[in-house]
Amino acid sequence: MVDLITIPFETLPSAGRLTPDALSTIPDGASVADALKVLQKKGFAHEGIPVLADAMPEREAVWWAAQSCKQAGDSLPPADRAAAKAAAAWVTSPSPETAAAASAAAQEAGFSGPGAFAAQAAALAEDPPVLAAGDPLGMSLAKQTAAGSVRLAALSEAELLPAAVAPEVAGAVAAVSAAAVTIAAVASKTDSESPPETSTEGDPPPPGDPSPPADAPPPEDVPVSKKQRKQASKASVPYLKMGQDIAAGKNHW
Question: How many CB atoms lie within 10 A of CB 88?
Fold first, then answer.
Protein backbone atom coordinates (compact mmCIF):
# COMPACT_ATOMS: atom_id res chain seq x y z
CA MET A 1 0.00 0.00 0.00
CA VAL A 2 1.30 3.45 -0.95
CA ASP A 3 0.14 6.58 0.91
CA LEU A 4 0.15 9.19 -1.86
CA ILE A 5 -0.85 11.94 0.58
CA THR A 6 2.45 11.70 2.48
CA ILE A 7 4.78 11.68 -0.56
CA PRO A 8 5.90 15.17 -1.65
CA PHE A 9 5.45 15.50 -5.41
CA GLU A 10 8.66 17.47 -5.84
CA THR A 11 10.77 14.60 -4.45
CA LEU A 12 9.83 12.25 -7.29
CA PRO A 13 12.22 11.91 -10.24
CA SER A 14 9.18 12.03 -12.56
CA ALA A 15 8.39 15.57 -11.40
CA GLY A 16 11.13 16.77 -13.73
CA ARG A 17 9.57 14.92 -16.68
CA LEU A 18 6.30 16.85 -16.85
CA THR A 19 5.78 19.35 -19.63
CA PRO A 20 6.09 22.99 -18.52
CA ASP A 21 2.34 23.51 -18.99
CA ALA A 22 1.48 20.58 -16.74
CA LEU A 23 4.11 21.44 -14.15
CA SER A 24 2.83 25.02 -13.88
CA THR A 25 -0.55 23.77 -12.61
CA ILE A 26 0.90 22.09 -9.52
CA PRO A 27 1.25 24.29 -6.40
CA ASP A 28 4.38 24.35 -4.29
CA GLY A 29 4.42 21.77 -1.53
CA ALA A 30 1.85 19.53 -3.21
CA SER A 31 1.72 15.86 -2.34
CA VAL A 32 1.52 13.22 -5.05
CA ALA A 33 -2.20 12.86 -4.31
CA ASP A 34 -2.68 16.63 -4.68
CA ALA A 35 -0.66 16.72 -7.89
CA LEU A 36 -2.71 13.92 -9.48
CA LYS A 37 -5.97 15.71 -8.64
CA VAL A 38 -4.73 18.95 -10.18
CA LEU A 39 -3.37 17.27 -13.31
CA GLN A 40 -6.67 15.49 -13.87
CA LYS A 41 -8.72 18.65 -13.26
CA LYS A 42 -6.58 20.74 -15.60
CA GLY A 43 -6.62 18.22 -18.45
CA PHE A 44 -3.23 16.61 -17.92
CA ALA A 45 -4.32 13.22 -16.59
CA HIS A 46 -2.04 11.47 -19.09
CA GLU A 47 0.96 13.23 -17.54
CA GLY A 48 -0.07 11.97 -14.12
CA ILE A 49 0.50 8.36 -15.18
CA PRO A 50 4.32 8.40 -14.91
CA VAL A 51 4.04 10.36 -11.67
CA LEU A 52 1.88 7.67 -10.13
CA ALA A 53 4.06 4.87 -11.50
CA ASP A 54 7.09 6.59 -9.99
CA ALA A 55 5.43 6.72 -6.56
CA MET A 56 4.77 2.96 -6.60
CA PRO A 57 7.11 0.03 -6.03
CA GLU A 58 8.08 -1.58 -9.31
CA ARG A 59 5.94 -4.66 -8.73
CA GLU A 60 2.79 -2.54 -8.31
CA ALA A 61 3.71 -0.49 -11.40
CA VAL A 62 4.02 -3.64 -13.51
CA TRP A 63 0.69 -4.91 -12.15
CA TRP A 64 -0.90 -1.60 -13.15
CA ALA A 65 0.51 -2.00 -16.65
CA ALA A 66 -0.76 -5.57 -16.94
CA GLN A 67 -4.22 -4.62 -15.67
CA SER A 68 -4.33 -1.66 -18.05
CA CYS A 69 -3.71 -4.02 -20.96
CA LYS A 70 -6.54 -6.21 -19.68
CA GLN A 71 -8.77 -3.12 -19.59
CA ALA A 72 -7.84 -2.26 -23.20
CA GLY A 73 -8.93 -5.80 -24.14
CA ASP A 74 -9.59 -6.56 -27.78
CA SER A 75 -8.07 -3.28 -28.93
CA LEU A 76 -4.70 -5.03 -28.50
CA PRO A 77 -3.36 -7.68 -30.90
CA PRO A 78 -2.99 -11.29 -29.65
CA ALA A 79 0.79 -11.12 -29.17
CA ASP A 80 0.41 -8.00 -27.06
CA ARG A 81 -2.28 -9.58 -24.89
CA ALA A 82 -0.02 -12.61 -24.40
CA ALA A 83 2.83 -10.32 -23.34
CA ALA A 84 0.58 -8.62 -20.79
CA LYS A 85 -0.28 -12.03 -19.32
CA ALA A 86 3.43 -12.77 -19.04
CA ALA A 87 3.86 -9.51 -17.12
CA ALA A 88 1.03 -10.45 -14.76
CA ALA A 89 2.58 -13.89 -14.26
CA TRP A 90 5.81 -12.23 -13.12
CA VAL A 91 3.89 -10.05 -10.64
CA THR A 92 2.09 -12.99 -9.07
CA SER A 93 5.26 -15.10 -8.96
CA PRO A 94 8.41 -13.00 -9.44
CA SER A 95 11.40 -15.16 -10.35
CA PRO A 96 14.21 -15.27 -12.93
CA GLU A 97 12.09 -17.72 -14.91
CA THR A 98 8.98 -15.52 -15.10
CA ALA A 99 11.15 -12.48 -15.84
CA ALA A 100 12.81 -14.34 -18.71
CA ALA A 101 9.41 -15.43 -20.02
CA ALA A 102 8.21 -11.82 -19.89
CA SER A 103 11.29 -10.65 -21.78
CA ALA A 104 10.68 -13.28 -24.48
CA ALA A 105 7.01 -12.28 -24.72
CA ALA A 106 7.97 -8.62 -25.12
CA GLN A 107 10.30 -9.54 -27.95
CA GLU A 108 7.61 -11.70 -29.59
CA ALA A 109 5.24 -8.73 -29.46
CA GLY A 110 7.83 -6.51 -31.13
CA PHE A 111 8.55 -4.17 -28.20
CA SER A 112 5.87 -1.88 -29.58
CA GLY A 113 2.50 -2.18 -27.82
CA PRO A 114 1.23 -1.78 -24.24
CA GLY A 115 1.50 -5.52 -23.58
CA ALA A 116 5.09 -5.57 -24.79
CA PHE A 117 5.86 -2.56 -22.59
CA ALA A 118 4.28 -4.29 -19.57
CA ALA A 119 6.29 -7.46 -20.16
CA GLN A 120 9.50 -5.51 -20.67
CA ALA A 121 8.83 -3.64 -17.41
CA ALA A 122 8.56 -6.99 -15.64
CA ALA A 123 11.84 -8.13 -17.20
CA LEU A 124 13.54 -4.94 -16.02
CA ALA A 125 12.22 -4.89 -12.46
CA GLU A 126 15.10 -5.43 -10.06
CA ASP A 127 16.18 -4.63 -6.53
CA PRO A 128 17.88 -2.19 -6.59
CA PRO A 129 16.11 -0.63 -9.61
CA VAL A 130 17.90 -0.31 -12.95
CA LEU A 131 18.43 3.33 -13.96
CA ALA A 132 19.20 4.65 -17.42
CA ALA A 133 22.82 5.73 -17.84
CA GLY A 134 23.22 9.50 -17.73
CA ASP A 135 19.72 9.99 -16.30
CA PRO A 136 20.01 12.50 -13.46
CA LEU A 137 16.30 12.13 -12.68
CA GLY A 138 16.70 8.57 -11.53
CA MET A 139 13.30 7.11 -12.47
CA SER A 140 13.82 3.40 -12.96
CA LEU A 141 13.53 1.89 -16.42
CA ALA A 142 10.91 -0.56 -15.16
CA LYS A 143 8.68 2.26 -13.92
CA GLN A 144 9.21 4.32 -17.08
CA THR A 145 8.27 1.35 -19.22
CA ALA A 146 5.26 0.43 -17.08
CA ALA A 147 4.00 4.01 -17.36
CA GLY A 148 4.44 3.80 -21.13
CA SER A 149 2.34 0.64 -21.13
CA VAL A 150 -0.50 2.33 -19.25
CA ARG A 151 -0.42 5.34 -21.54
CA LEU A 152 -0.45 3.20 -24.66
CA ALA A 153 -3.31 1.05 -23.32
CA ALA A 154 -5.41 4.14 -22.63
CA LEU A 155 -4.77 5.57 -26.08
CA SER A 156 -5.38 2.21 -27.73
CA GLU A 157 -8.75 1.65 -26.08
CA ALA A 158 -9.81 5.18 -27.04
CA GLU A 159 -8.66 4.53 -30.64
CA LEU A 160 -6.30 7.50 -30.51
CA LEU A 161 -3.36 5.61 -32.01
CA PRO A 162 -1.23 6.35 -33.93
CA ALA A 163 -2.01 10.08 -34.02
CA ALA A 164 -1.49 10.68 -30.29
CA VAL A 165 1.16 8.08 -29.63
CA ALA A 166 4.25 10.04 -30.66
CA PRO A 167 3.69 13.16 -28.53
CA GLU A 168 2.27 11.35 -25.54
CA VAL A 169 4.64 8.42 -25.04
CA ALA A 170 7.86 9.41 -26.77
CA GLY A 171 9.76 9.13 -23.50
CA ALA A 172 8.38 5.68 -22.83
CA VAL A 173 9.33 4.52 -26.31
CA ALA A 174 12.87 5.63 -25.57
CA ALA A 175 12.72 3.74 -22.27
CA VAL A 176 11.69 0.51 -23.97
CA SER A 177 14.51 0.85 -26.48
CA ALA A 178 16.93 1.28 -23.60
CA ALA A 179 15.28 -1.63 -21.84
CA ALA A 180 15.82 -3.93 -24.78
CA VAL A 181 19.51 -3.05 -24.82
CA THR A 182 19.76 -3.58 -21.07
CA ILE A 183 18.08 -6.97 -21.13
CA ALA A 184 20.25 -8.15 -24.01
CA ALA A 185 23.40 -7.07 -22.19
CA VAL A 186 22.37 -8.61 -18.88
CA ALA A 187 21.46 -11.85 -20.63
CA SER A 188 24.88 -11.97 -22.22
CA LYS A 189 26.45 -12.04 -18.73
CA THR A 190 24.99 -15.49 -18.13
CA ASP A 191 26.50 -16.96 -21.28
CA SER A 192 29.69 -18.42 -19.80
CA GLU A 193 30.33 -20.84 -22.64
CA SER A 194 31.23 -18.25 -25.23
CA PRO A 195 32.93 -14.89 -24.66
CA PRO A 196 31.11 -11.78 -25.89
CA GLU A 197 32.08 -10.50 -29.29
CA THR A 198 33.74 -7.14 -29.67
CA SER A 199 31.07 -4.47 -29.51
CA THR A 200 30.50 -2.52 -32.70
CA GLU A 201 28.24 0.39 -33.54
CA GLY A 202 24.60 -0.62 -33.17
CA ASP A 203 25.40 -3.64 -30.97
CA PRO A 204 24.38 -3.88 -27.27
CA PRO A 205 27.02 -2.70 -24.77
CA PRO A 206 29.46 -5.31 -23.45
CA PRO A 207 28.50 -7.20 -20.27
CA GLY A 208 30.36 -4.78 -18.03
CA ASP A 209 28.12 -1.92 -19.13
CA PRO A 210 24.47 -3.05 -19.32
CA SER A 211 23.06 0.46 -19.71
CA PRO A 212 22.55 2.44 -22.92
CA PRO A 213 25.18 5.13 -23.63
CA ALA A 214 24.88 8.30 -21.61
CA ASP A 215 25.09 10.46 -24.73
CA ALA A 216 22.17 8.74 -26.48
CA PRO A 217 19.97 11.38 -28.15
CA PRO A 218 16.72 12.19 -26.31
CA PRO A 219 13.39 11.45 -28.00
CA GLU A 220 12.28 14.11 -30.45
CA ASP A 221 9.93 16.69 -28.97
CA VAL A 222 6.72 16.37 -30.97
CA PRO A 223 4.20 19.23 -30.76
CA VAL A 224 0.88 18.37 -29.11
CA SER A 225 -2.32 20.16 -30.08
CA LYS A 226 -4.86 21.15 -27.44
CA LYS A 227 -7.29 18.66 -28.98
CA GLN A 228 -4.78 15.81 -28.74
CA ARG A 229 -4.00 16.71 -25.14
CA LYS A 230 -7.68 16.82 -24.21
CA GLN A 231 -8.33 13.46 -25.88
CA ALA A 232 -5.31 11.83 -24.22
CA SER A 233 -6.27 13.21 -20.81
CA LYS A 234 -9.88 12.01 -21.08
CA ALA A 235 -8.76 8.54 -22.16
CA SER A 236 -6.30 8.36 -19.26
CA VAL A 237 -8.71 9.21 -16.42
CA PRO A 238 -10.05 5.67 -15.78
CA TYR A 239 -6.53 4.25 -16.01
CA LEU A 240 -5.25 6.80 -13.51
CA LYS A 241 -8.10 5.82 -11.17
CA MET A 242 -7.12 2.16 -11.57
CA GLY A 243 -3.53 3.02 -10.63
CA GLN A 244 -4.68 4.88 -7.54
CA ASP A 245 -6.72 1.85 -6.49
CA ILE A 246 -3.63 -0.33 -6.91
CA ALA A 247 -1.57 2.10 -4.85
CA ALA A 248 -4.24 2.03 -2.13
CA GLY A 249 -4.28 -1.77 -2.07
CA LYS A 250 -7.81 -2.02 -3.50
CA ASN A 251 -6.63 -3.83 -6.64
CA HIS A 252 -4.13 -6.51 -5.72
CA TRP A 253 -2.79 -9.64 -7.33
Answer: 23
Question: Which residues 6+ apart lie within 8 Å of 238 measured at CB?
Answer: 71, 154
Phi-psi region of 73 (alpha: psi -120 to 50; beta: other; left: phi over 0): left
Residue-wise pLDDT for 75-132, tens only, equals 899 999 999 999 999 999 999 999 999 999 999 999 889 999 999 999 999 876 777 6
pTM for this structure?
A: 0.78
DSSP annotation string for the chain: ---TTSSBGGGSGGGGGS-HHHHTTSPTT-BHHHHHHHHHHTT-HHHHHHHHHHHS-HHHHHHHHHHHHHHHGGGS-HHHHHHHHHHHHHHHS-SHHHHHHHHHHHHHTTT-SHHHHHHHHHHH--SSPP--TT-TT---HHHHHHHHHHHHHHHHHTT-TTTTHHHHHHHHHHHHHHHHHHHHHHHHHT--SSPPPPP-TTSPPPTT--SPPTTPPPPP-----HHHHHHHHHHHHHHHHHHHHHHTTSS--
Contact 82, 107 (CB under 8 A): no
Decide: 51 and 36 in contact? Cβ < 8 Å.
Answer: yes
Kindly list the domain boundaries of the chain, sorted by start residue.
9-247
Report which of 125, 49, 133 is spatially closest to residue 90, judged by C-alpha positions: 125
Task: Give the bridge partners for 8, in sequence order.
Answer: 31
pLDDT at 137: 54
